[in-house]
Design a protein that fits this description.
Shape of chain B: globular
Structural class of chain B: mainly beta
Number of strands of chain A: 34
Strand order of the largest sheet of chain A: 10-14-15-13-12-11
Helix content of chain A: 40-55%
Oligomer: heterodimer
Largest sheet of chain A: 6 strands, mixed
Radius of gyration of chain B: 16 Å
Number of helices of chain A: 30
Order of helices and strands of chain B: HEEEEEHEEEEHEEH
Strand order of the largest sheet of chain B: 8-1-2-11-10-9
Number of helices of chain B: 4
Strand content of chain B: 35-45%
Distance between the termini of chain A: 56 Å
Structural class of chain A: alpha/beta
Amino acid sequence: MDDLLREFLTESGEHLDTVDAELVRFEQDPNNETILRNIFRLVHTIKGTCGFLGLPRLEALAHAAETLMGRFRDGLPATSASVTLILLTLDRLKEILADLEATGTEPAGSDDDLISALERMAEGAPEASEPAAPPPPPEPVLPEPVARELKPGEVSLDELEAAFLAAPGPDESDFAAPLPAAPEPAPVSAPKVSEIKASAPKAEPAPVEATEAEPVRAEKAEAGPEGETAAASKNQTIRVSVDTLEHLMTMVSELVLTRNQLLEIARRHEDSSYKVPLQRLSHVTAELQDGVMKTRMQPIGNAWQKLPRVVRDLSAELGKQIDLVMVGAETELDRQVLEVIKDPLTHMVRNSADHGLESTAERVAAGKPARGTIRLAAYHEGGTITIEIADDGKGLNLAAIRKKAVERGLASQADVDRMTDAQVAKFIFDAGFSTAAAVTSVSGRGVGMDVVKTNIETIGGLIDIATTAGRGTTFTIKIPLTLAIVAALIVRAGEHRFALPQVAVLELVRVDAGAQRVERINGAPVLRLRERLLPIVSLTGLLGQAEAGTETEQAGFVVVAQVGRERFGILVDEVFHTEEIVVKPMSVKLRHIPMFAGNTILGDGAVVLIVDPNGVARQVAQGVQGSGGHADADDDAANEVADSKTTLLVFKGGQGSFKAVPLSLVTRLEEIECAKVEWLGGRALIQYRGRLMPLVPADPAITIKSEGTQALVVFSDGDRAMGLVVDEIVDIVEERLDIEIAADRSDLIGSAVLRGRATDIINIAHFLPLAYDDWARGLKRPEQLSTILLVDDSAFFRDMLTPVLKAAGYNVVTAASAEAALNTLQSDPEIEVVVTDLEMPGRSGFDLVAAMRRAEPRLAALPVIGLTGAIGADAVERARSLAIADLVAKFDRAGLIAALAELGAETVSKAA
Amino acid sequence: MQAANANATGAQAKGATTNGVETGATDDFVTVFVGETLFGLAIERVHDVFVPSGVTPVPLAPAEIVGLLNLRGRVVTAMSLRRRLGLPDAPDEADGSKANPKMAIGLEQAGETFALVVDGVGEVLKLGADSREAVPINLDPRFRNLATCVHRLDGRLLVILDVDALLGFTPAGAKAA
């Protein structure tokens, strides 16, 4: 029964979808009997099966709908109202089916509203025809009987017909008593039924079987000469579970790989007796692979099936006349891809109907045909499928988008003016971006297009917009045919090979020390490409393998890639070839790494990682968005490398000496014009991002220049910012930090050797109060001073974090080791929160927390925040098991403050 | 898992069904060694024993993960038992030849295959409850969290590893015991 029900659910779902689409067609072409017959047959099948499975609610609804459709067949004109009513009924049927699928039983409820409406509609037909002729209606529609001998177990059409007539059906005879509880079939049918049973799959009590007989008849009739005119769904097909196909796919992928390995071996051995069978194996494998791939393919029309209905409803709702033209519905693509694009496509069609097309009045005024057209087209192009959604509406309002982009701070006015129309148009893919003057129930809420873009990008697709004012807008989506196999460029970066999906690759540029070379702006690599600057990232650097970006200038290749609006170059050492690779998902342990989309096995048996262009783009974009450029990007890189290294910004300050500050503390690097510096009460200030920012020299010996430009290192905390005046920004270095000499100046923490140069490490805590005298006192939360125990083995971090925490309004006690921390905890009852480094030599932070949890109740209950160099899944889990409230990356100052604030809020709410 | 850790006191630990421990009966363990220590893995969990080759390191991955390798057409995530236990890499691996460790055990977890890289693989032992001991409480927590019990063998000890904990899928809280 369970299997039967499941089968019924999938089948009915498909049938209802078809009926949906067909009804809309029928409404436009009410004289087309073929369509009507098809609809009638499908609803009838559903009704019959429902009766068979004992689903009275569904059956009653289907029956009522069928009755009305029976009247259409008898010549009742199909009005828009009646079609709408039937569509509503179909929606109700779908709801019930969904419930049935979820719970296994038909939900309780009443459909009397719809049923009586349907009946009224059916009765409200021209009175003349009804009493006059109650003829057996199916007669004129029936196809010619199939002229061939019956096989054993088959029944002749005549017999079926007789059984059908005897059974309760859409006939007028039942129509007299249209109660939801369908009348029991007349016992007359019993003898015929026994014959039918032979061909029916399951033996059931006779009365029920009679209802079952109807679908059987319908199927047989359809198989007759007129069968071809029915929808293509009646091909010879069997249902195979997706799991079976997936498994088959995996096996074939493995077969392909094994074959490749064999070929590799055969190439090395000159034994010709292998060659012929191997060649055959190779061919067969290729064919098998094709075949299996085909089983995963589905026509894109499946994703479009709902659209006619959507457009019909929309055109009624919006009062616009809309034609939907669909071209290339038979274009096939992978089932998995189809699933992903289904919803985005629906959304875009809705968008086109609502925003794209003007109202009928506007169209007429503009001299366009009153009916707007939305054209959906799909076709193959290379290894990808292209889908176009075009409307002949008013086009995007680019001026409004430009204005909105500036308002929302997505780009500056200057940027926006420089951008091409195509670039501007792409702003509509940003979250929350809507230029619709009025928010309608259909769209204009600014959600959606960003989701569309994300969905398409997750499957490695691209989306583009072309728009002409007054002529319409065309969205072009390019997606790979399948997700399982993609064309990829195999490259080498450092010692290892990687695969880069070809869809994102625009071109390859060879770079060396000569004409085409990578240049640097303040350390950030860029490439001049056809008079445009292209930001470059090195793949080795991105993956944390490079030795501080020293060898990137050498010869190599730049893979020019585009993801969304971002165009960038990925620097690799060598490019090998393109290969069709089978994408295998990353292990759950590695899925958190944004740089990789999966992995694959190459022909030579080696495993290579597939680089995710979206992940790379995000890294690049992070560098581009902050105006400090590479500062942010390097900061990220620093967060990902081992904990003991620190990224420092090196600058010159005061008598040519080198000074450094941890990059993580720096918000931005700026060059300002000295003319803009203003003096108020003896203090230098500058208008910066709409606020006044105090300027503080990094060394008493520095004087703020009076002309030219002045380099600044900007620090900010919340909405305050301070500009540290330096002579020159020199470099960013990532090094293990050993502070060698502790200076006795409060503006310095000490000195260290960086890149072979003695460098002073400045103490930001000294400068902050110079800019705002209340900064260190922490005006923000004066009412509540928690005492924090900060545990870190590195004196540097203790010194760095203490002022930060103090500035945020906490009292800070420090400890250099787990032992010291435990002692302090026992002796100081004031401590309310522990912030500890998790990776310490000897007893780690985890050990410390474990010891606390075992200790007296006061310590056991203390909230703990862990600082860690790399937050891995493992660490998270361990932290959770020790009830560590939060894990914060070691350099993430803002994150730490936020975590503490959250803890504070929690404690307060608990106390309340 | 918590039950296994807490109850494995010489008596029967019925909770440890994942490791196939049953009352009275003997269990088979595949023994592996890392340095001088002998570890046991329930034989039901061991799918393969093989020599790992061609390991592709994964940049930015957690330290325990050595990389990915191709095991008869399947991509397998290789994890170092040494690193999982917080031990330094073996001396001969430390000079950058980590990519070619000596032996690996194929384990399966939630439909995914992992390769546990060890220094060597020993024989399969059939052990009963009579030699079983609870995990000594003074063991390094990293060991304690991953072990279910210890067996006394002639002249040496066998630490039975909890495969689920090893692969890091133990539900949160279980390790706090």
